[in-house]
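I hope you will forgive my troubling you with a question about protein structure. The matter concerns a single protein, recorded as an amino acid sequence and a row of backbone structure tokens. Please examine both parts with care and let me know of anything in them that strikes you as inconsistent. Here, with my thanks, is the record as I have it:
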Amino acid sequence: MDFQFTRLRIAMMKSAITRTKYLVDHRIFASVGENFYFQPRIIPINPEYIKFGNNVAVATNVQFVCHDIIQMVFNNIAGEKVFKKKYGCIEVKDNVFIGANSIIMYNVSIGSNVIVAAGSVVTKDVPSGTIVAGVPAKVIGSFDDLYAKRLKESAELEADSYTPEVCWKIFDELHNKE
């Protein structure tokens, strides 16, 4: 099947669960572990350069960049095609969450037990057990610390804690302090 058609088909799927199942069933990426969730509608141009471990969740609009096109500029300067396109792989290990609108560059390995905050640009390897954020992404915290904090918060929540009414009440308490 034509890869461009596959990319279009995936982009048109309404459900991230359906997209994820399709990506796994059709072996679009180099490898994918168990409990994989892929929310982006656009898959990378070179998915065969990307490996995902177990228990990985990728939020909306995350981009995986497996090559650059700077050779186009350099070749125009040189006046001939002497520069080649540069490719690289991306590895995402186990228990990783990648936040919305993040960019993961080539030749990067994201360790196990990692959170990449929304909007981050990951240009270097990410050590296991960390939370990274920013442009470029830097370590800002510990995976284990956030895990413990969220576990405690979850134990204190009631079943209807995420209704719009409750969320707006909490929001107002946080933002209307005088």
User: Anything to note?
Assistant: The mean pLDDT is 92. The chain has one domain: 3-142. The helical segments are 3-12, 16-25, 70-78, 143-156, 164-175. The first strand starts at residue 31 and ends at 32.
